[in-house]
Amino acid sequence: QVQLVESGGGLVQAGGSLRLSCTISGSILSRYAVGWFRQAPEGEREFVAVISRSGTNTRYVDSVKGRFTISRDNAKGTVYLQMNSLKPEDTAVYYCAADFVLNSVVVHTTTDEYDYWGQGTQVTVSS
Fold first, then answer.
1. What pLDDT, on a 0 to 100 scale, did the predictor assign at position 71?
2. Distance of alpha carbon 36 from its chain centroid, rounded?
3. How far is CA 121 from CA 36, 85, 95, in A?
4. Which of 49, 46, 61 is closest to 92 using CA atoms?
5. 42 pLDDT tier (thresholds 50, 70, 90)
6. Can you say how many angstroms the Cα of residue 124 is from the centroid of all Cα atoms in its chain?
7. Would the pLDDT of 63 be above 90?
């Protein structure tokens, strides 16, 4: 059974940084592209960032470009989301998700493409 576990969330002041981690168990991370999504209170789940199986292709939502960086360590079974210059509007529950793809560079940005989801980790940015 494939499971994803997020960690690293918390409370931070505006302008601060956090690093989220997403660790897989029950399968091999290199089989999946991995995305990060977030959901604010009373909002829809939105795409944040994604990294391909190979790690060579990444994509970000415009609002986080230049501030967030996604990376992966297949040997550790972990994907990271480094979040810098955080803003109050980044406050949300952050979810990682795994997308089983055969192509090593393909990435998807819609929730319906993903096969497995973590339970989420809360990120709160105070002004």
1. 98
2. 2
3. 11, 19, 7
4. 46
5. confident
6. 16
7. yes
For 72-81, how does the pLDDT look when each residue is reduced to its tens digit (9 = 90+)? 999 999 999 9
**Contact indicator for 14, 67 with CB cutoff of 8 Å:** no
Q: How far apart are CA 32 and CA 101, in angstroms?
A: 6
Do the beta carbons of residue 50 and residue 35 sit within 8 Å? yes
Residue reference for tokens 């040997």: 75
Q: How far is CA 2 from CA 29, 32, 97, in A?
A: 10, 11, 11
pLDDT at 6 over 90: yes
Res 68 pLDDT > 90 = yes
pLDDT, position 13: 98
Residue 44, CA distances (Å) to 37, 40, 79, 95, 110 in order: 10, 7, 23, 12, 12
- CA distances from residue 79 to 3, 41, 51, 55, 92 in whole angstroms, order as listed: 13, 25, 9, 10, 19
